[in-house]
Design brief:
Number of strands: 9
CATH class: Alpha Beta
CATH topology: TIM Barrel
Structural class: alpha/beta
Order of helices and strands: EHEHHEHEHEEEHHEHHEHH
Oligomer: single chain
Largest sheet: 5 strands, parallel
Shape: globular
Distance between the termini: 20 Å
Number of helices: 11
CATH architecture: Alpha-Beta Barrel
Radius of gyration: 19 Å
Length: 303
Amino acid sequence: MEPDLVAYSPIMHRPRLRWPGGARVALWVVPNIEHYEFMPKFVRTRDPWPRSPHPDVLGYSQRDYGNRVGLWRLFGLTDDFGMKCTVSLNLAVIQHYPAILEAMEKRGWELMSHGIYNTRYHWNFSEEEEREAMEEAAAIHLSLTGRRIRGWFSPAITNTLRTFDLAAETGYDYTADLYHDDQPFPLKVKSGKLLSMPYSVDLNDVILLRRGEEAEAFARQIRDYFDTVYEEGAEQGRVMCIALHPYWVGQPHRVRAFRRAMEYILSHPGVWLTTAAEIADWYNANHLPAIEAHLAAREAANG
């Protein structure tokens, strides 16, 4: 990792992280609720739709299934577990589909910015273009929920070298754009503060889609991942993220496998089922001072 962004610290050399109630694992489940433009413009480096010529009716309609059907099936599952999720949200969703916003608000879900549309990449954005996109996303959230948005996650994971400084500058508290750790970690930004929140491109259903794997493989990976971090969490608290896309996991032949995986995880004591903002708040209030002192001591020792 770029040394000017994240200080190096082996996880087992850090001050011991304990979650509320002595939990071993802080689990955040992240439905990616996205909107793909039917006729997107070419975005500098890549065509947003792999099939051409446009419109890519197949690709668009598969993803549209998530917002029309799959998400509502997922709402039922999360209701059964009393699960409050953090949504990786293209903010255009709540402009186009008020019913989705109403359903998420009813459940108290946290909304994390995933840009405006998932077909508007940030690669090769100028600094001003990227800043404006972050500010627009925050403004949409504030206008429709009355709350300040807390988290930033670049659309389609198209972050730039300026993303982290700009996220801190424009008022975000954490980012999900890095995959370097099993714990939150402070980033070195030019102004303000920004926390890296562990997101997953491994426990991510769309990655399995690209590999041609199916739901049982995803559920097995979830269980195996959990068994490892649960064991490790007895000594050093961990974060576990499960990334979902309603157009994939919300299909009738897949949702039951995810339900069984969640039943397995939640049968264990010491699991804090929570949101990214709650993780960030607990970490900042209860652990960040110890980490900052630890990093300062390492830096001093290394001259």
